[in-house]
Automatic annotation (TrEMBL):
Pfam families according to UniProt: HMA
Domain HMA: 1-63
Name of the molecule in the record: Heavy metal-associated domain protein
Keyword Metal-binding: yes
Organism whose genome encodes this protein: Pseudoroseomonas cervicalis ATCC 49957
Taxonomic lineage from the root: Bacteria, Pseudomonadati, Pseudomonadota, Alphaproteobacteria, Acetobacterales
Length: 66
């Protein structure tokens, strides 16, 4: 399980965009968004770095992109 802090995720639409990016890497990944705290949780065996890169490519900086 991976957690990502995503400061730019401010609404449900943003969360859906992040979810699409995650699901492109692993369609069966578990995904939960906490928009209020600007955080997502991903459950998958795909390496964390792949999700971090996908989220970054979708336009959202995250704690793993630094």
């Amino acid at each position: 399980m991976y957690r990502f802090d995503i400061p730019g995720m401010k609404c449900g639409g943003c969360a859906k965009k992040v979810e699409r990016a995650v699901k492109e890497k692993d369609a069966s990944a578990g995904f939960a968004a906490d928009v209020e705290n600007r955080r997502v949780t991903v459950t998958s065996s795909v390496p964390r770095a792949e999700f971090a890169a996908a989220i970054q490519a979708a336009g959202y900086a995250n704690d793993a992109a630094a």
